[in-house]
Amino acid sequence: MLSLFGGLTLACEPKKKKNPFAEDSTFAISQDSVVLRDRKAQASTDSAVTYDFVDSYAEGLAKVKLKDKFGYIDERRKEVIAPQFDEAGWFSGGFAKVRIKDKWGFVNKQGKVVIEPQYDQVGKFAEGLAMVELNKKRGYIDTNNKQLVPLQYDWAGDFQAGLARVSLDKKWGFINAKKQEVVPIGLEAARDFSEGLAAVWNGKKWGYINTQGQVVIPYQFDRAEDFTKADEKKEEKTKANKKEEPTAKVMEAGKTFYINPEGKCVKDCQ
User: Fold this and answer.
1) Is 236 helix (H, G, I), strand (E, B) or coil?
2) Residue 200's CB: how many other CB atoms inside 10 A?
3) For residue 227, which of 204, 202, 206 has the smallest C-alpha distance?
4) Is the pLDDT of residue 158 over 70?
5) Cα–Cα dist 46/26, whole Å
6) Tell me: the pLDDT tens digits for 48-83?
7) CA angle, residues 238, 243, 249, in degrees to nearest 5
8) Which of 96, 113, 125, 219 could disulfide-link to 205, CB 3.0 to 4.6 Å?
């Protein structure tokens, strides 16, 4: 239901399409809540489950909020984890981070708290590891809460392609799951690896390194973003029917353009 000025009420029911609310349901939005009404259940009980917020789906489950508590529903709109957490994240690697009071832990898709809330901050599980923070120091745990990388960094991000970006004493580097510094901590600034390259800053200019820490595109840019590929739909439309190479948006001497992994301008060249 949608309440308008003057007491006028409109009922909104979407056309059939592929989305979590499309079949056997009425999806209505009011000023204060999101309502999911299952027609089959409504026929016998005339009841509705009302959530204050419904998030997007991740790994088959969506986060919902009810009276300041968070839980999860599946793609058939069935509540699989009752709202009980003070804060919650998306599922990743089969687990979602959840907060109870001021501590974070992890829950599995069956609603079981597999890692009791005990950390000040946590990341998401990626490649079997998750960042955790305690007393302002960060490290990494596995799904059994075994500490694989000690809590020793001032900042640490999620693992991507076998590497994680970390910071210590305002310097940056990259480690692997074996605690090895693949790219030694000493960079002035760095972005995450994407398509095998990471943008790094030497204090004056940006360049790019490979996963061995070698500078493959010289420090020359005033700004540098991640390398990304064209999406699959665009690739399918290419006349040659071949994938486009990744590109990165950069800025040099006030001009913005795109480069390929060799550092050559391929778009918006001037």
Assistant:
1) helix
2) 24
3) 206
4) yes
5) 13
6) 678 999 999 999 999 999 999 999 999 999 999 999
7) 95
8) 219
Q: Which residue has the tokens 């509705």?
A: 48
| Contact yes or no for 188/204 (Cβ under 8 A) | no
Spatial neighbors of 233 by CB under 8 A, at least 6 apart, are: none
Q: Are 62 and 79 in contact (CB under 8 A)?
A: no
Q: Which amino acid is at 97?
A: K
Phi-psi region of 136 (alpha: psi -120 to 50; beta: other; left: phi over 0): left
CB 52, CB 33: distance < 8 Å: yes
Cα distance between residue 156 and residue 114, in whole Å: 22
CA distance 160 to 156: 12
In the numeric block, the tokens 């917020």 are attached to: 53
Q: What is the largest CA-CA distance in the chain?
A: 69
Distances (CA, A) of 41 to 30, 54, 111, 218: 21, 20, 23, 63
Q: For tokens 């204090």, what's the residue?
A: 203
Closest CA to 205 of 165, 250, 171, 172: 250
Give the span between the Cα atoms of 85 and 99, in whole angstroms.
6
Write a three-state SS string for 95-115.
EEEEEECCEEEEEECCCCEEE
DSSP H/E element including 55:
strand 53-58
Q: Dig out the tokens for 187 from the structure.
A: 């960079």
**Six token digits for residue 55:** 């998030």
Predicted confidence (pLDDT) per residue in 216-251, tens digit: 999 999 999 999 987 644 545 544 455 689 999 999
Instruction: Give the integer Cα–Cα distance in Å for 213 and 219.
Output: 14
Nearest Cα to Cα of residue 224 among 267, 195, 262, 258: 258
